[in-house]
């Protein structure tokens, strides 16, 4: 884990309410370059609300999401104009959805899916775009000769790897992942986790991974936040939290996994 | 309904004012799709009701009106629209491009250069160039407003990956004044270079989709492409069999029961004008009478 002196992302008192119901409340943490943060909790714990607020998919009611932009240094993305935020989300940010269908264009070839972000930021050379797309397919262990096939002809695991390639092709610095292994077979999950771990390490990516699966954070996350009812009840180094949980809810969560 | 019950050009004055406001907005923001409250017209949607409403809003009683359908003045669609305005607006009609003040068109731009005195009205079935890949209207609107046009190139990318070249040959998207990406309606891409820098006003009306957009005179309109797959305004590589023109868009026509074929100008007025001036194509020279009496509807079976 390489710790630059300035956080890449600094979340401050982030809160989201659905009427009287708490989505997430007063969440604060710093994420440093190259660091992977895991957020765990049961469904309804607020972890997905938190992720979507950070990624700009939901407008938080309070708080800041300060990102260290390439051009202007730290800026609160909550206060950014929508065009700026959308530009960020297709250049320096990436979002991997739980369901590959939500993150892919199913009617477009694998090459077109990967090339879209390149074209969105102005790439206009077909040969270059195709070359980069093919290269990225191979990096996520998809054979280059599938470049013209549509994702509908891919297995679930391949679709998820394609979604990852499509997101990483522009060299983002921060990746949001929402249950990236959800719905996949166990053997497929393991392969995907290995792949993601390799990419994170090779590219020096920072990532925020939301999951209910403690095995995922055990393998990928440097640090961990445990959420319950919209609040962070415990945070710390992953091994520490998993091996010696302090909060009663964390203890329950860890033990329930052990039973599985 | 008796003819006296018609308002000039069928639509009431308030509706025409509403449409003119949409047209003015469209001219002020070239390539931007302006929503308008499309009215029921006494013809089905596929028949160019958007174009008809735009024509109705810009026609003056002293104007001369021309209607072309895929280049021809004599198809059922063109005849019915021409008749509609003869009846409802009592305007003079013509088949001559140069004599028309307002030209309503489906699928073609006339070969003859248009002038600052003329208005070209396009019938548009689907105004949204991003629709093919992004069906959500809310999302395409946002893409236009934020100038997020990567998706347009994804479409062209898919074309090349599937066919080895950009196979889109109709409704080929253009970027207008370096800002809005626009669908020029299903004209052949051969016509695309005429869209830009045209002297005449170009108005686009989509009835079912309730959109109007426009290109004011001398507007920049650039066809999208890739550096290594540049845009080409292609056409059949033949001269016109009737008039010998080598610069006009051609249709392939079956000329006899034995499956004999020939290429002829799709713009019938252009072809007739050239023949009147004495230009003769290879097929016309051998059997001029048969060829000149051939009519365009043959095309419909191709
Ligand atoms: Zn001709």
Automatic annotation (TrEMBL), chain A:
GO biological processes: organic phosphonate catabolic process
The keyword Nucleotide-binding is annotated on this UniProt entry: yes
Keyword Nucleotide-binding set for record: yes
Record-annotated ABC transporter domain positions: 9-254
Pfam families xrefs: ABC_tran (PF00005)
Gene3D superfamilies, per the entry: P-loop containing nucleotide triphosphate hydrolases (3.40.50.300)
Superkingdom of origin: Bacteria
GO MF annotation list: ATP binding; ATP hydrolysis activity
Keywords recorded for this protein, A-Z: ATP-binding, Nucleotide-binding
Protein name: Putative phosphonate transport system ATP-binding protein
Organism: Thalassococcus halodurans
From TrEMBL, chain B:
Role played: Catalyzes the breakage of the C-P bond in alpha-D-ribose 1-methylphosphonate 5-phosphate (PRPn) forming alpha-D-ribose.
Entry's transmembrane regions: none
Enzyme Commission code(s) on record: 4.7.1.1
UniProt GO MF annotations: 4 iron, 4 sulfur cluster binding; alpha-D-ribose 1-methylphosphonate 5-phosphate C-P-lyase activity; metal ion binding
Species per Swiss-Prot/TrEMBL record: Thalassococcus halodurans
Record's keyword annotation contains 4Fe-4S: yes
Keywords, comma-separated and alphabetical: 4Fe-4S, Iron, Iron-sulfur, Lyase, Metal-binding, S-adenosyl-L-methionine
Reactions accelerated catalytically: alpha-D-ribose 1-methylphosphonate 5-phosphate + AH2 + S-adenosyl-L-methionine = alpha-D-ribose 1,2-cyclic phosphate 5-phosphate + methane + 5'-deoxyadenosine + L-methionine + A + H(+)
Family of the protein in this entry: Belongs to the PhnJ family.
GO biological process, one term: organic phosphonate catabolic process
UniProt protein name: Alpha-D-ribose 1-methylphosphonate 5-phosphate C-P lyase
Domain of life: Bacteria
